[in-house]
Amino acid sequence: MAFKDNLRKKIEINALAYRIKASMGPPDSGRRIDKELMRNLLAEGAYEKILERDMELYRLPPMGDQPRLLVLDNDLGIYKTDVEDVVLRKSPVVKEMLNIRNVIKILNDADVVISKKEVSLETLREELIAGLDLRFTREDIDDLVYDGLSGLENRYAEGVEETLHFMADLLGYQPVPKALQAAHHTIWGLRRGGGGQYLFGPVVLYDRMHNNLKRIQQPIKLSDPDDMARYEAVVAGTTAPDQEGSEVFKALGRDVLDAPDRTAA
Predict the structure, then answer these.
(1) Domain count within the chain
(2) Gyration radius (Cα) of the chain, Å
(3) Do 7 and 124 sit in the same domain of this protein?
(4) Cα separations (Å) of 234 from 163, 178, 187?
(5) Overall pTM > 0.90
(6) Whole-number Å distance between alpha carbons of 174 and 187
(7) Neighbours of 10 (CB within 10 A)
(8) Selection from 23, 17, 16, 79 nearest residue 52 by Cα
(9) Statement to judge: residues 143 and 252 lie in one domain
(10) Is 196 in the same domain as 120?
């Protein structure tokens, strides 16, 4: 699979995992995990599906010499045991519950549980991404830059936005917070700082309506009125950005190639 296809797959896996996590709730919330989204994520790994009694299990690659089974239910448990043992613990029949040893297993599964809920989801996400070849060459990045330039030239907003998403993933940019959002714009930024003193910069802004692409290099402090006024002036077009149009994609490409870790991991 080509680098761009693998990068697209990584983004799709992350988006699926984010939506699944959003469907989870605390124990007393009554919210149920979105099983259909979880099936879509599991399909990315082509894991063996096992149906036993009323349970849906997936066989994950073993951890050393230990088997691993994921149970698709609201707990999303990963177990280091075999199918028969998981079925006994999770969906016992009456005759199995008459055995005291079985009852102990049913009441306490701590000896076989590896993880549950968010931890299991994150394990799966990381393993799926680790299976992708995300190494790239200068030619791969040149191709992305060319795609972005072609999208701009042809006023193909979807193509511009997809290439921006690729570049954002490679550079660690994130969608900006509400304070930096603007109507009809797709905006990505590199988040810096912490402790309530967040800065975003560089920031890339694409105006879908006018097919206008800009980049601001200097970090923007959300709590600084001068920074925010400068940012809003760039959005409005009354202050020039640091780069505009085709120069933005060229600058992003240079940043990716100059990064010390030349993979998309």
Answers:
(1) 2
(2) 24
(3) yes
(4) 22, 17, 13
(5) no
(6) 9
(7) 19
(8) 79
(9) yes
(10) no
**Omega of the bond leading into 62 within 30 degrees of 0 (cis):** no
Can you name the residues that pair with 51 across neighbouring β-strands?
56
120 with 149, same domain: the answer is no
Exposed e or buried b per residue across 143-178, where buried means at least 16 C-beta atoms within 10 angstroms of its C-beta = bbbebbbebbeeeebeebbbbbbbbbbbbebeebee
CB 123 within 8 A of CB 78: yes
State which residues form the domain around 226: 138-258
Report if residue 46 sits inside a domain. Answer: yes
- In whole angstroms, what is the distance from residue 213 CA to residue 247 CA? 9
Q: How far is CA 80 from the centre of its chain?
A: 26
14 vs 168: CA distance, rounded Å: 13
Q: Give the Cα separation of 170 and 136 in Å (integer).
A: 10
- Helix extents (H) in 74-202: 83-90, 94-97, 100-107, 117-130, 138-153, 157-171
pLDDT for 136-185, tens place per residue? 999 999 999 999 999 999 999 999 999 999 999 999 999 999 999 999 99
CB 194 within 8 A of CB 174: no
Distance CA 67, CA 181 (A): 47
57: pLDDT confidence band, cut at 50, 70 and 90?
very high
Q: Which two tokens stand for residue 129?
A: 């991404």
Query: 191: part of which helix (H) or strand (E)?
Result: strand 185-192
